[in-house]
């Protein structure tokens, strides 16, 4: 079992998801600010079978969707969007899954959607991938051109 530490010091364990082979937050853990449900998502527990009349939201992305820096699961942007929708549409039942995982790029996000999120039958999928692919692609080009070399010292101890 590996541990991941965010830039703000929040730490959580990761495990391999048996269906997808992806590293995911260890299901069922609670580290203070971060709670992971039994399915390995930073979300409230949601039933695998969507209740009738429920609109299910799925949020996918990297660390910017997982939100390790915030004070609680309720302060993540997926939770805030879900709450906003509930307040404006009290006649509609909403639930959500925050499937963001730090470090994920589009390849892992696509695999997460296929193996982990699609079985939950979301009605709306929101994808926010901020910089992981851009940084990796840019670093690859810079390395090919001799402009980047692996760092041997961490610039921000």
Strand order of the largest sheet: 1-2-3
Count of helical regions: 4
Helix share of residues?
25-40%
Order of helices and strands: EEEEHHEHEH
Rg, nearest Å? 17 Å
Count of beta strands:
6
User: Average pLDDT, to the nearest integer?
Assistant: 87
Tell me the fraction of residues in β-strands, as a range.
15-25%
Shape annotation? globular
Low-confidence stretches: none
Q: How far do the termini sit from each other? A: 24 Å
**How is the biggest beta sheet arranged?**
3 strands, antiparallel
Tell me the structural class: alpha/beta
Concise account of the structure shown:
The protein has 157 residues and is an alpha/beta fold. The protein contains four helices and six strands, in the order ββββααβαβα. The strands form two sheets. It has a three-stranded antiparallel beta sheet, with no helix packed on it.
In words, what does this structure look like?
- The chain has 157 residues and is of the alpha/beta class.
- It is built from 4 helices and 6 strands; from the N terminus they run ββββααβαβα.
- Strands 1-2-3 form a 3-stranded antiparallel β-sheet, with no helix packed on it. It has a 3-stranded parallel β-sheet with strand order 5-4-6, sandwiched between helices.
- The chain is globular, with a radius of gyration of 17 Å.
- The model has no long low-confidence stretch (mean pLDDT 87).
Features:
single chain, 157 residues, alpha/beta, 6 strands, 26% helix, globular
What is the topology?
Blueprint: E1 2-5, E2 11-16, E3 23-25, E4 54-61, H1 63-66, H2 77-88, E5 93-98, H3 106-117, E6 124-128, H4 132-144
Parallel strand pairs: 4-5, 4-6
Antiparallel strand pairs: 1-2, 2-3
């Amino acid at each position: 079992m590996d541990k991941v530490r965010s830039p703000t010091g929040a730490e959580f364990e990761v495990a391999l998801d048996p269906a997808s082979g992806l590293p995911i937050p260890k299901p069922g853990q609670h580290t203070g600010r971060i709670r992971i449900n039994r399915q390995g998502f930073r979300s409230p527990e949601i039933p695998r079978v969507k209740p009738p009349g429920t609109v299910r939201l799925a949020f996918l992305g990297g660390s910017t969707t997982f939100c390790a820096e915030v004070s609680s699961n309720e302060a993540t942007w997926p939770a805030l969007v879900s709450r906003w929708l509930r307040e404006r549409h009290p006649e509609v039942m909403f639930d959500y899954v925050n499937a963001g995982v730090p470090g994920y790029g589009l390849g892992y996000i696509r695999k997460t959607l296929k193996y982990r999120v699609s079985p939950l039958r979301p009605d709306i999928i929101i994808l926010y991938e901020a910089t992981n692919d851009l940084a990796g692609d840019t670093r690859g080009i810079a390395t090919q051109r001799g402009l980047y070399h692996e760092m041997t010292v961490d610039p921000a101890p």
